[in-house]
């Protein structure tokens, strides 16, 4: 473990800036601006409310929130009393959310009632009553009068944080496992610190920066605030994802560092060409592949390169990056970030030669040690096996090849084919189904489903699409359906997806 005198826990970092720059604005948003000192006061009051309602170390707090200040307040308040924040994708289908909450058994559920579906709200109401779970609404609606208002938390008497060490778990960072059900990677204060410090060093970040992260609030939520927190900088929260809203925010708040998906940069280059961003110096792209056309169009429009990065839930964020002074626009993943050790290995775990394809594996102080309540963390002898295949050139730059598992990334959101296949397979007219990812300009990749029907069954594309939309999150619904006579198989009887991937547009009529 590298040595450092910096504050490593979230509470230490906040306390440091409260002492040095208490009146500096830490959070800027349409819901209000908050200084470091005001943030600390809200966190202490929220902690007091949680403790009074029986929250103890290790208890789970589920968050179903968009990018709002309350998300940061609750995250920091929970970690200060050693509770575990569990961000949930509130855009998911109702069944998925119900399964997540039931599995986690939270002591508190915090939501924005204006952003969750009515059936999800109804489930949470019933769950809270049945199991005595405290439900807090940051934005209440008449449909849920029993929920505690956020203002009650803010007005509660303050409570000081509990003693913390870097190895204390700060939250569960959820990903999707090979079975399609999310797994919570254990994320400690040390993981957050070393990943954030790594990014700070790569991009030369300081207290003078203003950060805007456009990642989803349920996907690596610490990215929204950790870089600003550990450097004493300011951050901006924005819920509107339209290109012009992002552009206006960059100009108004003099944003210097932005983090987003390739599709966001693509739309900005298309719709904001005549806008200048004199303060913006870092445009970081993660979560999906950024092709050369996007790189070129963005640089032509704004005179600034896009810096592609690679990271995962298990590495607590970026582990490979294109630094500002050595960036590439060929879609490369970049070089290893500080404090990460990276190797490419074959199926036997042996390191492959330069230019050959291997699986990316990682070690270091920011790499998670496992999943919550699940033993199948893909690691061996301290190395995390990512499941992503890549190549390395003579300059030590990594290039992504493909996903070993067949996982699809739709605009940065992970979709496992099995999860979609299981839903489609439940339709009584479906005999077999195979889902693969196919290229699509706007989202990078989208699911396509090949299906065969039961004897004498009838079903059209519109009916099947409606069926999927009722049961899957919108980004998981296949954008293409193809009915075939049969699906190619390998010797064991399993569907041979290699043939489908090699010929995604081929109309298969196999014997």
From TrEMBL:
Q: Which GO terms describe its molecular function?
A: long-chain fatty acid-CoA ligase activity
Domain of life of the organism in this record?
Bacteria
Q: Output one GO BP term.
A: secondary metabolite biosynthetic process
Which residue ranges does the record assign to the AMP-dependent synthetase/ligase domain? 17-372
Q: What EC number(s) does its UniProt record assign? A: 6.2.1.3
The AMP-binding enzyme C-terminal domain extends over 420-494
InterPro entries referenced in this protein's UniProt entry, alphabetically: AMP-bd_C (IPR025110), AMP-bd_C_sf (IPR045851), AMP-binding_CS (IPR020845), AMP-dep_synth/lig_dom (IPR000873), ANL_N_sf (IPR042099)
Q: Which SUPFAM superfamilies match?
A: Acetyl-CoA synthetase-like (SSF56801)
Instruction: Indicate yes or no for the key word Ligase.
Output: yes
Keyword Ligase assigned: yes
List the keywords (alphabetical). Ligase
Q: Could you tell me what this protein is called?
A: Long-chain acyl-CoA synthetase
Record organism: Candidatus Electrothrix aarhusensis
């Amino acid at each position: 473990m590298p040595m450092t005198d910096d504050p490593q826990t979230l509470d230490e970092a906040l306390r440091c800036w409260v002492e040095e720059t208490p009146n500096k604005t830490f959070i800027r948003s349409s819901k209000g601006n908050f200084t470091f000192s005001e943030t600390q006061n809200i966190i202490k009051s929220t902690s007091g409310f949680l403790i009074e309602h029986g929250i103890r170390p290790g208890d789970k707090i589920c968050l179903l929130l968009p990018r709002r200040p309350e998300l940061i307040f609750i995250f920091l308040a929970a970690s200060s009393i050693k509770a575990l924040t569990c961000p949930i994708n509130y855009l998911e289908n109702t069944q998925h959310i119900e399964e997540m909450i039931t599995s986690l058994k939270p002591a508190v559920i915090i939501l924005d009632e204006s952003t969750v579906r009515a059936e999800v709200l109804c489930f949470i109401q019933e769950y809270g009553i049945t199991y005595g779970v405290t439900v807090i609404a940051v934005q209440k609606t008449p449909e849920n009068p029993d929920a505690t208002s956020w203002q009650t938390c803010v007005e509660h008497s303050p409570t000081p944080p509990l003693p913390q060490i870097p190895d204390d778990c700060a939250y569960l960072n959820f990903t999707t496992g090979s079975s399609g059900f999310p797994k919570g990677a254990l994320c400690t204060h040390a993981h957050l610190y070393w990943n954030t410090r790594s990014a700070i060093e790569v991009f030369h970040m300081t207290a003078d920066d203003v950060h805007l992260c456009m990642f989803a609030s349920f996907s690596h939520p610490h990215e929204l605030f950790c870089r600003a927190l550990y450097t004493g900088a300011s951050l901006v929260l924005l819920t509107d994802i339209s290109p012009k809203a992002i552009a206006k925010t960059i100009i108004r708040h003099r944003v210097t560092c932005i983090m987003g998906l390739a599709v966001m940069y693509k739309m900005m280059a298309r719709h904001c060409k005549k806008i200048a961003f004199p303060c913006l110096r870092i445009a970081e792209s993660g979560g999906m592949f950024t092709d050369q056309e996007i790189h070129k169009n963005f640089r032509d429009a704004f005179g600034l390169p896009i810096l592609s990065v690679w990271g995962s839930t298990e590495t607590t964020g970026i582990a490979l990056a294109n630094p500002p002074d050595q960036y590439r626009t060929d879609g490369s993943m970049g070089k290893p970030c500080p404090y990460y050790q990276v190797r490419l290995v074959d199926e036997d775990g042996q390191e492959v030669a330069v230019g050959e394809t291997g699986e990316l594996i990682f070690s270091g102080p920011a790499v998670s040690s496992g999943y919550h309540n699940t033993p199948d963390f893909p690691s061996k002898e301290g190395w995390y096996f990512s499941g992503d295949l890549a190549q390395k050139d003579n300059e030590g730059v990594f290039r992504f090849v493909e996903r070993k598992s067949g996982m699809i990334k739709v605009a940065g959101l992970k979709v496992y084919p099995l999860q979609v296949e299981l839903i489609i397979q439940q339709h009584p007219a479906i005999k077999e189904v195979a889902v693969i990812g196919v290229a699509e300009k706007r989202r990078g990749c989208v699911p396509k489903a090949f299906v065969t029907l039961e004897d004498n069954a009838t079903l059209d594309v519109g009916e099947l699409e409606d069926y999927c939309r009722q049961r899957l999150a919108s980004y998981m619904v296949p954008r293409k359906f193809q009915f075939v006579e049969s699906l190619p198989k390998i010797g064991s009887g399993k569907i041979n997806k290699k043939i489908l991937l090699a010929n995604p547009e081929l109309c298969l009529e196999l014997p």
